[in-house]
Amino acid sequence: MARLTLKVHPRAKRSRITGRLGDAWKLDLAAPPVDGKANQECVRYLAELAGLPQSRVRVVMGAGSRVKVVEIEGMEQAELEGLLGGMSGSAPPEG
Predict the structure, then answer these.
(1) Which has the minimum average pLDDT: 20-24, 38-42, 87-91?
(2) The domain spanning residue 6 has which CATH number?
């Protein structure tokens, strides 16, 4: 199971990983922080990115915060970090 710390930016033009901020990854979300829509978009985007069903991705800390911790079942930490690290300079999946 992989665990990811995110600093999210809701109401962005599109959902995408934009880089690092300390130990956290910066994630733009194309959803407002209202009624859990940003959390839903976060789960949807990360599931698509990992190639896993949304049921394998969950926000475990920070559901009401811009700093979130997300767990992804079915993916190892090194695999996830490699995937995110390889996104530098490339276009991530759009959402």
Answers:
(1) 87-91
(2) 3.30.1200.10
